[in-house]
Design a protein that fits this description.
One of its GO terms (molecular function) is iron-sulfur cluster binding. This is PA0069 family radical SAM protein. It comes from Sediminibacterium sp. KACHI17. InterPro entries: Elp3/MiaA/NifB-like_rSAM, MJ0683-like, rSAM, rSAM_sf. This protein is α/β, with parallel strands linked by helices. 31% of the residues lie in helices and 13% in strands. It contains eleven helices and ten strands. The chain has a seven-stranded mixed β-sheet. Strand 7, helix 5 and strand 8 form a beta-alpha-beta unit. The longest helix has 16 residues.
């Protein structure tokens, strides 16, 4: 992998593409044609916000959740493929560098969750934390909003599903142990590669695969139901690692798994293309064409039921691998439900739902 002298180390995106919602902004429209434009590698800033709501209904049938809550918008992890990048445009920022270094912090998230759960019409089903950006990204060490949200959920016996790639979750091991004892929590740890060069380029501010396996092991030993998320699988970059990842996750205590096939919707198409050709010029054309092969000649797809899995021979090959190793390494645990019957509001007796 080669890096230009102007390459922003520690960042995934290398520029800010146009925000489709903003009409007047100065950007690099054709980045390869401007030699005198350099992006400053500025520090991450936290923008504290008083949100109006924290729990969102999820309408997509592809993601396996009914509701989600995200204490942070934007993510310092900088994963180049992240579908959440596009959502940053709704806040008036770019899906590129802005997404990684302008983190919106919903300081009143715990209070909003408590208010939501106290509403008499809420009939509990699991809430995903997070369905968008990583709730244990570096901002969590400073603000501890995820911890506070979990404490509220534990108080109400509100079931929670979680996904993360950050070992910071181990700070909350004892709380998660307590919730697991009441069948209130299930966690997916995202692992995309054991290749450290690839990981550092693709997910620059994340922890190593070895550390993520440690998370699975420690939380599994604490009684938490643990799984592994292989997402996304990118043909020509990390798809050949699927077996190794699933085997290692199983050996460390994972009992279920999930995967996605790479898709590059909206501004992510520009960001990923720029990143791919800067980091892997020797195989960029091949990888780009393989991604297109998985989406009918495109790199993006918004169709429910297809967009997360892809289609065609390349996507089918990835799917068959997943099915095979899921069975081989016993990551196909029977469908398992979190317990919503324990839910109670403070001052109320427990109810059965």
């Amino acid at each position: 992998m080669e890096e230009e002298s102007s390459y922003l180390k520690g960042r995934g995106a290398q520029f800010n593409p146009r925000n489709r919602f903003l009409k007047n902004e100065r950007i690099r429209e054709h980045i390869e044609g401007i030699d005198d434009w350099t992006e400053p590698n500025v520090e991450t800033v936290y923008l504290e916000d008083q949100a109006k709501s924290i729990v969102n209904k999820v309408d997509s049938p592809d993601v396996g959740m009914w509701y989600s809550m995200n204490p942070y918008q934007g993510c310092e992890h900088g994963c180049i493929y992240c579908y959440a990048r596009n959502a940053h445009e709704y806040w008036g920022y770019s899906a590129g560098l802005d997404f990684e270094r302008k983190i919106i912090v919903k300081k009143n998230a715990p209070q909003l969750l408590r208010k939501f759960l106290m509403h008499k019409n809420w009939e509990p089903v699991p809430i995903s934390l997070s369905g968008n950006t990583d709730c244990y990204q570096p901002a969590e060490k400073k603000f501890r909003l995820t911890r506070q949200l979990l404490e509220v959920c534990n108080e109400f016996n509100q079931p929670v599903g979680m996904i993360t790639k950050n070992a910071g979750i181990l700070r909350d091991k004892e709380l998660l142990r307590e919730m697991a004892g009441k069948n209130l929590v299930s966690i997916l740890v995202s692992i995309t590669s054991f290749d450290e060069d690839l990981r550092r380029a693709m997910e620059p501010r994340t922890t190593t695969a070895k550390q993520r396996l440690r998370v699975i092991k420690e939380l599994s030993d604490a009684g938490v139901r643990m799984g592994v998320m292989l997402g996304p699988m990118i043909p020509g970059l990390n798809d050949h690692e699927m077996q190794r990842i699933m085997k290692a996750a199983s050996e460390h205590g994972a009992v279920f798994s999930a995967y996605t096939f790479i898709r590059l919707n909206g501004a992510i198409k520009l960001i990923f293309h720029d990143w791919l050709y800067k980091n892997f010029p020797d195989r960029a054309d091949k990888v780009w064409h393989l991604i297109q092969n998985g989406h009918g000649g495109q790199v993006n797809d918004s169709r429910y039921g297809v967009r997360m899995r892809g289609e065609g021979p390349i996507a089918d090959m990835v799917r068959q691998q997943f099915i095979k190793y899921n069975k081989l390494y016993q990551l196909n645990a029977e469908r398992w439900e979190l317990d919503a019957t324990r839910f109670r509001r403070p001052g109320e007796q427990g109810k059965l739902f």
